[in-house]
Amino acid sequence: MPSAPAPATRLTALGLGLRPAQGPPRLADCVRGGFGGLVGILVTGLIGRLALGSAGDLPWLVAPMGASAVLVFAVPGSPLAQPWSVVAGNVSSALVGLTAAWLVGPAPLAAALAVGGAIAVMIALRCLHPPGGACALTAALAPPIVTGHGATFAFWPVGLNSLVLVAVGIAFHAALGRRYPHVAAPAAPAADRAVDAAGRRRVEVADVAAAMARLDQGLDVAPADVVALVRDAEAHALDRRLGGLHCADVMTRDVVTVRPDDSLFRVRILINEHRVKALPVVDDERRVIGIVAIVDLFNLDAGDLTPVRQLMTTDVATVRAVTPVAALVELMVERGHRHIPVVDEDDRLAGLVSRADLIAVLHRLLLEGQRPNSGE
Protein backbone atom coordinates (compact mmCIF):
# COMPACT_ATOMS: atom_id res chain seq x y z
CA MET A 1 0.00 0.00 0.00
CA PRO A 2 1.24 3.48 -0.71
CA SER A 3 2.56 5.25 2.33
CA ALA A 4 0.66 8.19 3.77
CA PRO A 5 2.11 11.62 3.00
CA ALA A 6 4.31 13.10 5.66
CA PRO A 7 2.81 15.80 7.94
CA ALA A 8 5.07 18.42 6.39
CA THR A 9 3.80 17.48 2.92
CA ARG A 10 0.19 17.69 4.07
CA LEU A 11 0.80 21.11 5.59
CA THR A 12 2.43 22.31 2.37
CA ALA A 13 -0.49 21.05 0.30
CA LEU A 14 -2.93 22.74 2.67
CA GLY A 15 -1.02 26.02 2.44
CA LEU A 16 -1.00 25.89 -1.35
CA GLY A 17 -4.71 25.17 -1.37
CA LEU A 18 -5.40 28.32 0.62
CA ARG A 19 -3.53 30.54 -1.81
CA PRO A 20 -5.56 32.39 -4.47
CA ALA A 21 -5.48 30.95 -7.98
CA GLN A 22 -3.58 33.86 -9.47
CA GLY A 23 -0.52 34.19 -11.64
CA PRO A 24 2.73 35.63 -10.33
CA PRO A 25 2.62 39.37 -9.59
CA ARG A 26 3.97 41.76 -12.20
CA LEU A 27 6.10 44.73 -11.22
CA ALA A 28 4.02 47.01 -13.44
CA ASP A 29 0.84 46.01 -11.58
CA CYS A 30 2.49 46.60 -8.21
CA VAL A 31 3.70 50.07 -9.17
CA ARG A 32 0.51 51.05 -10.97
CA GLY A 33 -1.82 49.85 -8.21
CA GLY A 34 0.27 51.31 -5.39
CA PHE A 35 0.79 54.70 -7.02
CA GLY A 36 -2.85 54.87 -8.06
CA GLY A 37 -4.01 54.19 -4.51
CA LEU A 38 -1.63 56.87 -3.20
CA VAL A 39 -2.94 59.50 -5.61
CA GLY A 40 -6.57 58.46 -5.16
CA ILE A 41 -6.59 58.67 -1.38
CA LEU A 42 -4.49 61.85 -1.35
CA VAL A 43 -6.86 63.72 -3.67
CA THR A 44 -9.96 62.30 -1.99
CA GLY A 45 -8.64 63.32 1.44
CA LEU A 46 -7.66 66.82 0.33
CA ILE A 47 -11.03 67.51 -1.29
CA GLY A 48 -12.88 66.01 1.68
CA ARG A 49 -10.95 68.20 4.09
CA LEU A 50 -11.58 71.31 2.01
CA ALA A 51 -15.29 70.52 1.70
CA LEU A 52 -15.98 69.38 5.27
CA GLY A 53 -13.35 71.24 7.24
CA SER A 54 -11.14 69.86 9.97
CA ALA A 55 -13.24 70.80 12.99
CA GLY A 56 -16.69 69.52 12.00
CA ASP A 57 -18.63 66.65 13.54
CA LEU A 58 -18.37 64.49 10.40
CA PRO A 59 -15.08 62.92 9.24
CA TRP A 60 -13.60 64.24 6.02
CA LEU A 61 -12.35 60.79 4.95
CA VAL A 62 -13.85 57.42 5.92
CA ALA A 63 -11.76 54.28 6.29
CA PRO A 64 -13.67 52.13 3.73
CA MET A 65 -12.24 54.35 0.98
CA GLY A 66 -8.95 52.53 1.46
CA ALA A 67 -10.63 49.28 0.42
CA SER A 68 -12.41 51.00 -2.46
CA ALA A 69 -9.05 52.30 -3.68
CA VAL A 70 -7.70 48.74 -3.80
CA LEU A 71 -10.44 47.75 -6.21
CA VAL A 72 -10.43 50.90 -8.36
CA PHE A 73 -6.67 50.98 -8.88
CA ALA A 74 -5.63 47.32 -8.61
CA VAL A 75 -8.50 45.53 -10.39
CA PRO A 76 -10.28 48.20 -12.48
CA GLY A 77 -11.82 45.54 -14.71
CA SER A 78 -13.73 43.90 -11.87
CA PRO A 79 -17.50 44.42 -11.75
CA LEU A 80 -16.99 45.26 -8.06
CA ALA A 81 -14.80 48.23 -8.98
CA GLN A 82 -17.04 50.02 -11.45
CA PRO A 83 -18.25 53.56 -10.68
CA TRP A 84 -21.85 52.49 -10.01
CA SER A 85 -20.64 49.79 -7.65
CA VAL A 86 -18.34 52.18 -5.77
CA VAL A 87 -20.71 55.11 -5.36
CA ALA A 88 -24.08 53.36 -5.08
CA GLY A 89 -22.61 50.48 -3.07
CA ASN A 90 -20.99 52.70 -0.47
CA VAL A 91 -23.88 55.18 -0.17
CA SER A 92 -26.66 52.57 0.02
CA SER A 93 -24.69 50.53 2.55
CA ALA A 94 -24.12 53.57 4.72
CA LEU A 95 -27.86 54.28 4.64
CA VAL A 96 -28.57 50.69 5.70
CA GLY A 97 -26.07 51.03 8.57
CA LEU A 98 -27.61 54.28 9.76
CA THR A 99 -31.06 52.67 9.65
CA ALA A 100 -29.85 49.71 11.71
CA ALA A 101 -28.33 52.06 14.29
CA TRP A 102 -31.58 54.04 14.48
CA LEU A 103 -33.67 50.88 14.94
CA VAL A 104 -31.44 48.93 17.34
CA GLY A 105 -28.76 51.29 18.60
CA PRO A 106 -24.99 50.80 18.53
CA ALA A 107 -25.04 47.11 19.44
CA PRO A 108 -23.72 43.87 17.92
CA LEU A 109 -27.18 43.18 16.51
CA ALA A 110 -27.17 46.53 14.73
CA ALA A 111 -23.76 45.76 13.25
CA ALA A 112 -24.94 42.37 12.03
CA LEU A 113 -28.14 43.78 10.55
CA ALA A 114 -26.19 46.55 8.87
CA VAL A 115 -23.72 44.27 7.09
CA GLY A 116 -26.27 41.61 6.15
CA GLY A 117 -28.78 44.18 4.95
CA ALA A 118 -26.12 46.08 3.00
CA ILE A 119 -25.08 42.93 1.15
CA ALA A 120 -28.68 42.16 0.20
CA VAL A 121 -29.35 45.74 -0.93
CA MET A 122 -26.17 45.94 -3.00
CA ILE A 123 -26.95 42.68 -4.77
CA ALA A 124 -30.50 43.87 -5.47
CA LEU A 125 -29.24 47.19 -6.86
CA ARG A 126 -26.44 45.51 -8.85
CA CYS A 127 -23.83 47.59 -7.08
CA LEU A 128 -22.03 44.95 -5.05
CA HIS A 129 -18.90 46.56 -3.60
CA PRO A 130 -17.08 44.87 -0.66
CA PRO A 131 -16.09 48.15 1.03
CA GLY A 132 -19.82 48.83 1.25
CA GLY A 133 -19.95 46.32 4.10
CA ALA A 134 -17.39 48.44 5.94
CA CYS A 135 -19.44 51.57 5.25
CA ALA A 136 -22.50 49.87 6.76
CA LEU A 137 -20.53 48.74 9.81
CA THR A 138 -18.98 52.19 10.28
CA ALA A 139 -22.40 53.84 10.14
CA ALA A 140 -24.01 51.32 12.49
CA LEU A 141 -21.29 51.76 15.13
CA ALA A 142 -20.80 55.51 14.67
CA PRO A 143 -21.07 57.70 17.77
CA PRO A 144 -24.24 59.72 18.34
CA ILE A 145 -22.51 62.90 17.18
CA VAL A 146 -22.37 61.34 13.69
CA THR A 147 -25.69 59.48 13.61
CA GLY A 148 -27.33 62.62 14.91
CA HIS A 149 -26.93 64.14 11.46
CA GLY A 150 -29.37 61.55 10.07
CA ALA A 151 -28.74 60.42 6.50
CA THR A 152 -26.16 63.16 5.95
CA PHE A 153 -23.27 60.83 6.77
CA ALA A 154 -24.17 58.55 3.82
CA PHE A 155 -23.82 61.37 1.32
CA TRP A 156 -21.38 63.63 3.13
CA PRO A 157 -18.66 62.31 3.44
CA VAL A 158 -19.29 58.75 2.13
CA GLY A 159 -20.88 59.84 -1.15
CA LEU A 160 -18.41 62.68 -1.66
CA ASN A 161 -15.40 60.45 -0.98
CA SER A 162 -16.72 57.81 -3.38
CA LEU A 163 -17.36 60.27 -6.20
CA VAL A 164 -13.93 61.86 -5.89
CA LEU A 165 -12.19 58.48 -5.76
CA VAL A 166 -14.00 57.33 -8.91
CA ALA A 167 -13.16 60.58 -10.70
CA VAL A 168 -9.49 60.17 -9.82
CA GLY A 169 -9.64 56.55 -10.98
CA ILE A 170 -11.08 57.54 -14.36
CA ALA A 171 -8.40 60.18 -14.90
CA PHE A 172 -5.60 57.94 -13.65
CA HIS A 173 -6.44 54.99 -15.89
CA ALA A 174 -7.07 57.23 -18.89
CA ALA A 175 -3.58 58.70 -18.46
CA LEU A 176 -2.17 55.15 -18.57
CA GLY A 177 -4.22 54.14 -21.61
CA ARG A 178 -6.42 51.70 -19.68
CA ARG A 179 -10.19 51.38 -19.82
CA TYR A 180 -12.06 52.53 -16.74
CA PRO A 181 -14.97 52.26 -16.39
CA HIS A 182 -14.45 48.80 -17.82
CA VAL A 183 -16.84 47.93 -20.64
CA ALA A 184 -17.00 44.30 -21.70
CA ALA A 185 -16.38 43.58 -25.37
CA PRO A 186 -19.67 43.61 -27.33
CA ALA A 187 -20.97 40.25 -28.43
CA ALA A 188 -20.49 39.45 -32.11
CA PRO A 189 -23.56 39.02 -34.34
CA ALA A 190 -25.03 35.55 -34.18
CA ALA A 191 -23.97 34.73 -37.74
CA ASP A 192 -20.35 35.58 -36.92
CA ARG A 193 -19.99 33.79 -33.63
CA ALA A 194 -21.74 30.51 -34.48
CA VAL A 195 -18.70 28.40 -35.39
CA ASP A 196 -14.94 28.63 -35.19
CA ALA A 197 -12.34 28.00 -37.85
CA ALA A 198 -12.68 24.25 -37.43
CA GLY A 199 -16.46 24.29 -37.83
CA ARG A 200 -17.15 23.81 -34.11
CA ARG A 201 -19.77 25.85 -32.34
CA ARG A 202 -18.13 28.64 -30.40
CA VAL A 203 -18.65 29.60 -26.79
CA GLU A 204 -21.06 32.50 -26.47
CA VAL A 205 -21.83 34.92 -23.64
CA ALA A 206 -25.06 33.09 -22.82
CA ASP A 207 -23.13 29.81 -22.49
CA VAL A 208 -20.69 31.34 -20.01
CA ALA A 209 -23.48 33.01 -18.03
CA ALA A 210 -25.33 29.69 -17.76
CA ALA A 211 -22.15 27.88 -16.67
CA MET A 212 -21.46 30.51 -14.00
CA ALA A 213 -25.01 30.13 -12.72
CA ARG A 214 -24.61 26.35 -12.52
CA LEU A 215 -21.30 26.65 -10.65
CA ASP A 216 -22.93 29.08 -8.21
CA GLN A 217 -19.54 30.24 -6.91
CA GLY A 218 -20.10 34.00 -7.15
CA LEU A 219 -17.33 34.43 -9.73
CA ASP A 220 -16.20 38.05 -9.97
CA VAL A 221 -16.02 38.37 -13.76
CA ALA A 222 -18.37 39.39 -16.55
CA PRO A 223 -19.36 36.58 -18.97
CA ALA A 224 -18.43 38.75 -21.96
CA ASP A 225 -14.92 39.16 -20.56
CA VAL A 226 -14.60 35.38 -20.23
CA VAL A 227 -15.60 34.98 -23.89
CA ALA A 228 -13.06 37.63 -24.92
CA LEU A 229 -10.34 35.81 -22.97
CA VAL A 230 -11.24 32.49 -24.60
CA ARG A 231 -11.17 34.02 -28.08
CA ASP A 232 -7.82 35.67 -27.42
CA ALA A 233 -6.41 32.42 -26.04
CA GLU A 234 -7.62 30.58 -29.15
CA ALA A 235 -5.90 33.11 -31.40
CA HIS A 236 -2.70 32.87 -29.33
CA ALA A 237 -2.73 29.07 -29.52
CA LEU A 238 -3.24 29.16 -33.29
CA ASP A 239 -0.43 31.69 -33.65
CA ARG A 240 1.84 29.37 -31.65
CA ARG A 241 0.95 26.42 -33.88
CA LEU A 242 1.61 28.53 -36.97
CA GLY A 243 5.10 29.23 -35.70
CA GLY A 244 4.53 32.99 -35.37
CA LEU A 245 3.84 33.54 -39.09
CA HIS A 246 3.10 37.15 -39.99
CA CYS A 247 1.03 38.52 -42.85
CA ALA A 248 4.23 39.62 -44.57
CA ASP A 249 5.17 35.93 -44.85
CA VAL A 250 2.08 34.93 -46.84
CA MET A 251 0.85 38.06 -48.60
CA THR A 252 1.00 38.76 -52.34
CA ARG A 253 3.30 41.72 -52.81
CA ASP A 254 2.75 42.52 -56.48
CA VAL A 255 -0.83 43.72 -56.05
CA VAL A 256 -2.90 45.02 -58.95
CA THR A 257 -4.86 48.11 -57.92
CA VAL A 258 -7.36 50.56 -59.34
CA ARG A 259 -8.25 54.18 -58.63
CA PRO A 260 -11.69 55.37 -57.57
CA ASP A 261 -12.24 57.14 -60.92
CA ASP A 262 -11.32 54.09 -63.01
CA SER A 263 -14.19 52.52 -64.94
CA LEU A 264 -15.69 49.12 -64.34
CA PHE A 265 -14.52 48.22 -67.81
CA ARG A 266 -10.94 48.58 -66.61
CA VAL A 267 -11.77 46.49 -63.53
CA ARG A 268 -13.07 43.67 -65.69
CA ILE A 269 -9.99 43.80 -67.91
CA LEU A 270 -7.59 43.66 -64.93
CA ILE A 271 -9.48 40.87 -63.19
CA ASN A 272 -9.51 38.78 -66.36
CA GLU A 273 -5.89 39.56 -67.28
CA HIS A 274 -4.35 38.88 -63.86
CA ARG A 275 -6.86 36.18 -62.83
CA VAL A 276 -7.60 37.75 -59.47
CA LYS A 277 -10.89 38.02 -57.62
CA ALA A 278 -10.50 41.41 -55.97
CA LEU A 279 -8.70 44.70 -56.54
CA PRO A 280 -7.83 47.18 -53.79
CA VAL A 281 -8.87 50.75 -54.55
CA VAL A 282 -6.11 53.22 -53.62
CA ASP A 283 -5.64 56.98 -53.73
CA ASP A 284 -2.70 58.89 -55.16
CA GLU A 285 -0.54 57.93 -52.14
CA ARG A 286 -1.47 54.22 -52.36
CA ARG A 287 -3.62 54.36 -49.25
CA VAL A 288 -6.45 51.87 -49.33
CA ILE A 289 -9.86 53.55 -49.58
CA GLY A 290 -11.90 50.59 -50.78
CA ILE A 291 -11.95 47.24 -52.52
CA VAL A 292 -13.86 45.92 -55.51
CA ALA A 293 -14.40 42.18 -55.96
CA ILE A 294 -15.47 40.13 -58.92
CA VAL A 295 -18.73 39.32 -57.18
CA ASP A 296 -19.53 43.05 -57.07
CA LEU A 297 -19.58 43.17 -60.85
CA PHE A 298 -22.59 40.86 -60.87
CA ASN A 299 -24.44 42.24 -57.87
CA LEU A 300 -25.24 45.64 -59.36
CA ASP A 301 -26.61 46.65 -62.72
CA ALA A 302 -23.84 49.06 -63.69
CA GLY A 303 -22.43 49.99 -67.08
CA ASP A 304 -18.83 49.69 -68.19
CA LEU A 305 -18.28 53.44 -67.78
CA THR A 306 -19.48 53.48 -64.17
CA PRO A 307 -16.62 54.68 -61.91
CA VAL A 308 -15.24 52.31 -59.31
CA ARG A 309 -16.17 54.66 -56.46
CA GLN A 310 -19.87 53.88 -57.02
CA LEU A 311 -19.35 50.15 -56.67
CA MET A 312 -16.42 49.63 -54.29
CA THR A 313 -16.78 48.50 -50.70
CA THR A 314 -15.45 51.22 -48.42
CA ASP A 315 -15.65 49.25 -45.16
CA VAL A 316 -12.29 47.59 -45.69
CA ALA A 317 -10.42 45.71 -42.98
CA THR A 318 -6.67 46.21 -43.24
CA VAL A 319 -3.80 44.67 -41.29
CA ARG A 320 -0.14 45.44 -40.78
CA ALA A 321 2.63 43.35 -42.27
CA VAL A 322 3.60 42.26 -38.73
CA THR A 323 0.07 41.13 -37.86
CA PRO A 324 0.02 37.41 -36.94
CA VAL A 325 -1.61 35.21 -39.55
CA ALA A 326 -3.78 33.82 -36.76
CA ALA A 327 -5.57 37.18 -36.61
CA LEU A 328 -6.78 36.64 -40.18
CA VAL A 329 -8.92 33.71 -39.06
CA GLU A 330 -11.34 35.98 -37.24
CA LEU A 331 -11.42 38.52 -40.06
CA MET A 332 -11.95 36.00 -42.84
CA VAL A 333 -13.67 32.98 -41.35
CA GLU A 334 -15.81 34.75 -38.77
CA ARG A 335 -16.40 38.20 -40.27
CA GLY A 336 -16.65 37.12 -43.88
CA HIS A 337 -13.78 39.10 -45.43
CA ARG A 338 -12.31 37.34 -48.47
CA HIS A 339 -9.43 39.69 -49.27
CA ILE A 340 -7.54 41.78 -46.72
CA PRO A 341 -5.06 44.48 -47.81
CA VAL A 342 -1.80 44.65 -45.88
CA VAL A 343 -0.47 48.15 -45.19
CA ASP A 344 2.86 49.49 -44.00
CA GLU A 345 3.63 51.90 -41.16
CA ASP A 346 2.38 54.82 -43.29
CA ASP A 347 -0.89 53.02 -44.12
CA ARG A 348 0.21 52.52 -47.73
CA LEU A 349 -0.63 49.29 -49.52
CA ALA A 350 2.12 46.71 -49.13
CA GLY A 351 0.37 43.49 -50.13
CA LEU A 352 -2.84 41.48 -50.15
CA VAL A 353 -3.87 38.30 -48.35
CA SER A 354 -6.72 36.26 -49.80
CA ARG A 355 -8.81 33.57 -48.23
CA ALA A 356 -7.03 31.11 -50.51
CA ASP A 357 -3.70 32.16 -48.95
CA LEU A 358 -5.07 31.53 -45.47
CA ILE A 359 -6.50 28.15 -46.46
CA ALA A 360 -3.11 27.15 -47.87
CA VAL A 361 -1.41 28.01 -44.58
CA LEU A 362 -4.00 26.13 -42.50
CA HIS A 363 -3.81 23.17 -44.88
CA ARG A 364 -0.06 23.02 -44.45
CA LEU A 365 -0.53 23.15 -40.69
CA LEU A 366 -3.01 20.26 -40.91
CA LEU A 367 -0.60 18.15 -42.95
CA GLU A 368 2.27 18.83 -40.57
CA GLY A 369 0.08 17.93 -37.62
CA GLN A 370 -0.65 14.52 -39.15
CA ARG A 371 3.02 13.60 -39.49
CA PRO A 372 4.47 11.14 -36.93
CA ASN A 373 6.42 12.81 -34.13
CA SER A 374 5.13 16.22 -35.19
CA GLY A 375 5.61 17.58 -31.67
CA GLU A 376 1.94 18.56 -31.28
Give a verbal description of the structure.
The chain has 376 residues and is mainly alpha-helical. The protein folds into three domains: 29-175, no CATH class; 190-241, no CATH class; 247-370, CBS-domain (Roll). Helices cover 54% and strands 6% of the residues. It has 16 helices and five strands. The chain has helices at residues 7-18, 27-52, 64-74, 83-104, 108-124, 131-140, 144-147, 152-175, 190-193, 205-215, 223-241, 247-250, 264-274, 296-299, 326-334, 355-370, and strands at residues 278-282, 288-293, 319-320, 339-343, 349-354. A three-stranded mixed β-sheet has the order 3-4-5. Strands 1-2 form a two-stranded antiparallel sheet. Helix 15 (326-334) links the parallel strand 3 (319-320) and strand 4 (339-343). Helix 2 (27-52) crosses helix 8, helix 4 (83-104) packs antiparallel against helix 8 (152-175) and helix 10 (205-215) crosses helix 11 (223-241). The longest helix has 26 residues, at 27-52. It is elongated, with a radius of gyration of 30 Å. The two termini are 36 Å apart. Mean pLDDT is 83; it is low at 372-376.
